[in-house]
Fold each of these.
Amino acid sequence: MPRYAIIGVEGPHDQAFVSKLLIGLGFQDFTGRAAELDPFWETLKPKYPKNGRLYVRMDMPSILFTADLSIAVYAAEGSGLKDSFPKAFVNHPPYRVQISAFGIVADADTAGPARVAADYSAIYRAHFPNIPNRPGVVDLSAIRTGIYVVPDNTQPGVLETLIIPCGAAVYPKHMKLARDYLNGFAAADKAHWRNFDDQKALVATVASVLRPGLTNTVTIKHDSWLCPATAAQVQPFVDFLKQLLSLP
């Protein structure tokens, strides 16, 4: 019987990032065929329409697996990782007691990593009493728990803050030209940008060349941002996943 683990993330970019790293660690992607879904994850399968809203995105988690471990990487919408996703552990108790690991991956875009980890810990401690309140720390109880705050558990940022150094290693020409292009816009053209939107725009500009018409999510999952040449940049995150999931 396989072990099970759940990782909650704040959006589809983070979901693609975690999935790509897990594939690099030897996991396989679930095919998406309903008949092949492990029954353990049946409760996470979305029902349409979601809460009666026809245009709401279907939030099926990414399922990745090896011979002895199945992982659901769930991307919440907006504040859903704090508001709605905790209800999954109330509505389906096996997700609290029959898993081997639970982790959170969050951004430090509006608060520092310590505050982000403390806020998530306070919410999920009702379900996982030992979940650490410090970023990057894994509790080694029977159900391992931890919260990783990108980019590195110490400084403010978003996933793109971590991805950009990877792009500099594998797509240096693309990154320079994209940066020059964005620098050509006047400050007034970017007055509506929020924290770290410049970094998101930089990755998106390169994505528009690598995958015209597609998103940062697609390029992170399918292009070479995460590869052997960028292993050093993401090694702390990989080490966190290995410890959380009890991987060699």
Amino acid sequence: MKIKAIFFDADHTLYEIPESAKKKAYEKFFSFLSKELKIPRENLEKTFFEVIEKVKKSKKPEKRRREYCLKKVLEKLGVEENENTNNKALEIFWEEILKGIKPKKGVLEFIQEMKKRYILGIFTDEFCRIVEKKLEKIFGNRKKYFKFLITPELTREMKPSLKFYEKILELTKLKPEEILVVGDSWERDLALAKKIGMKTALIAKERAGKPEYFAKNFEEFRKLFK
């Protein structure tokens, strides 16, 4: 059956954030908090990553937000929470991330071509406000390219979860075999999609699972997909 819609994972699939940008973002984030809250930076940093490591195992979106993590960090350190300070720290962090974000090789040309032929959408673990900013940085107005945006606010679960694919079917009114799902991780993005009959494409350095398509970048995928 002919493919009518393509849904893309966002982070690490459509774009990447260089380690240098992440390092700078955390540097400014921790420096600001340390100064404002008068906490030794090493204590703050150590506790923050301990909390991140613990909560990233949760499938509950509310526990995966950085706002939640920062709140837990301050609780562990016995510091009174200041919402304005927390919000400013996170603004500083995301500002640096957005400065450094870069499209994956060949992705802009691929999306430009595919939007003429298919319904395009995004399904992502990133929360709506942030992924909108990331997509805007890469593509400009994301609605010009992507009709649907499926985030944890809609699914109320983090990946891997069938709820992402159920939401795709609900929104598009298409059959599973009419949908192609594209991601960088077989387990997180594609395995469940394949299980319910969707077509899958893995864009990664190494092959994993049993996707219909495998390519190392979007330039390769573009040739395969034709």
